Amino acid sequence: MVRYSPLGRLSSNAHTPRIAIIAIFTSLAVVSIASLLVLRGTDISARLHLFSSPPSEPEKVDATPSICPAIGPNNHFEQQYGHELLQRSIAHEGSNRRLREKIAKAQRGEDIRMAVVGGSVSAGHTLNDWRNIYFYRFLDWWNQQFPNGHHEIFQGAVPATDSGYFAYCFDKHIPKDVDIVFVEFSLNDASSLPCEMAKQGSIVQAKMMESLVRNLLRLPRKPAVIMTSVFSFNVNEYLDGQESHLPISNYYDLPHISMKNALFDHINRHPDDLKGKLYNDGHHLSEWGHQMLSDMVSHYVERQICAMSDTVQPPLLDSYSYNESIPKYDMFTHRWQQNEFRELEPYCHTFSDQSYRPKEVDGWKFWNWQNEKFYIVADEPGASVTFEVEANQGVVYLYLLRSANYNLGNIWCWIGDDKEKGRELEGYWDKWYSVGVMTPVAEGLSQGQHLLHCELMNKTSHPDGGTHFRILAVASG
Questions:
Q1: Which label site among 40, 217, 252, 269 has the fewest CB atoms less than 10 Å from its CB?
Q2: Stretch 60-71: mean pLDDT, rounded?
Q3: Vertex 136, ends 130 and 142: CA angle to 5°?
Q4: 95 vs 450: CA distance, rounded Å
Q5: Regarding the domain delimited by 2-323, which CATH topology (the fold level of the hierarchy) does it fall under?
Q6: With bands split at pLDDT 50, 70 and 90, how would you rate the model's confidence at 48?
């Protein structure tokens, strides 16, 4: 039975997880539910897509069922998938200090708040039922292990976005008081090595993912971050965002669960055996694929629960620098620059927040695509827009759509009054996929507020002369 709680959440009885959408305005806004229960509303910071489970009954039960050993022939997951496949899925194990702290919290019967940031896979594209998304299935498994707590997951995924967008805009889509965060961007991020998505490789993509991870780790509850990697059969090579992410998993001691490690070679050898089961369209996971990813993550967490039951005393060095929350400096700061290091304080103005308006608009209009993607768009050369931006590390980016479709052209952007020193940004490219790309506009700015101006150009990179342009967000830090 489903009932409304006083706070406007959808709640259910027993131990069935529930989904709710909280929309808070100056007064309570109207909540509407569409195909994957994508959030609607005006203030995006209040439009949090929540999957939750009800509080347990008051009776005392063992909050840590006997599921060990997590390795061996008697383990449920290993019986289903095999030991070697599950081992290969662990791209980076890590010490799991933070994750084990959250497990211990759940074992005490306390509530755990989780969140997901990612692209269309985590948004559940091609699925008919949101209950089949991997993180919802994981929540169901977590509830079985820790029935005394009230656990919930906030769905923050946005289709066709990469880690660059979330590096600056994550807190527009998930709350800051979370304990565990799942990160999934392997399909939309480019490899740091030369690849189909980036012919020269993309060090920028690695920097963006690091900024996202570092800011998530700095959140008030010091959440555990779990990286996940999937892969697309439609991409013609092995390399993708995972290669940009693995060094970050290593540097920040993050677990990294990879379907690609486990299945890429097998699906190349036996595409008829697995492709139809793993995907709905060759790119997005099927229900079976989401179940497998959930099981890989659950098996990994199960290993940590079992390891925590060991009574081995920690080594002497365990009390050394490993107790620090995060590395003192980011991965890209040279030692001779360390005295100049400042943490990124991201600023994000996203058109997903339908209440946001730039400082000045001339010839641009706001456009909502299927209540899923939100842009400011222009078609006529000379159309201009001005944004107020705040610099911390001195950088400004536009998050813009890049595609071979939609007749995308070029814009010219500059800071302040120095139009001649601006930059030309292209919307068109010749790749087969359409995604948002965090594109640098300025670096080395002084700390404080600046004005960013952009103008649609007569000049265009589109082979047919297209001059349409779409901006999803402006970010700075």
A1: 269
A2: 54
A3: 165
A4: 42
A5: Rossmann fold (3.40.50)
A6: low
